[in-house]
Amino acid sequence: xxxxxxxxxxxxxxxxxxxxxxxxxxxxxxxxxxxxxxxxxxxxxxxxxxxxxxxxxxxxxxxxxxxxxxxxxxxxxxxxxxxxxxxxxxxxxxxxxxxxxxxxxxxxxx
Amino acid sequence: xxxxxxxxxxxxxxxxxxxxxxxxxxxxxxxxxxxxxxxxxxxxxxxxxxxxxxxxxxxxxxxxxxxxxxxxxxxxxxxxxxxxxxxxxxxxxxxxxxxxxxxxxxxxxxx
Lengths: 110, 111
Prior knowledge:
A: 110 residues; 11 strands; B: mainly beta; four-stranded antiparallel beta sheet
């Protein structure tokens, strides 16, 4: 058990809709990272937050946004969903040595 | 971050040592070698990391060549639960690195 929780486990929605994925980092970890894993792209880094502040950005689309709250949980908001957004979305947290990944949220856009 | 090259797949007999190679010939002096694995759509799992010395923990050993251009992850006694995709990642900015995952090596443990 990595100590990182993600909800929901599965999400099915339609194109054009908006969803929110939630992540609670392992206790004590200040950094949160979001990754997307689709069949044809592999694991792609999206964005990192550290103690509430955005620290690094990767291949995150403008339709996607994230934030980290004072209690350190994070949310990834995906809007105007397209079929190609169907993927596994992983959250990871870190206190410096290696990352702890959550179990992921599987998003299916129909 | 330096590029890494791994074989796409490998098999290993259960109970034997699994040796997974990784080439990173363009690694720079301040970059670390990390290994993660992903078991069938679960979240990736951190295994081990190193800078230039060999490292060992309860999961695996990491052997880094003297010129640091390649490394080998060793699972000493592979079990069926070690079947996974193994990723070798080279990155600087230790501790806050945004990991770039390649395609990894799909390791299959054969009973």
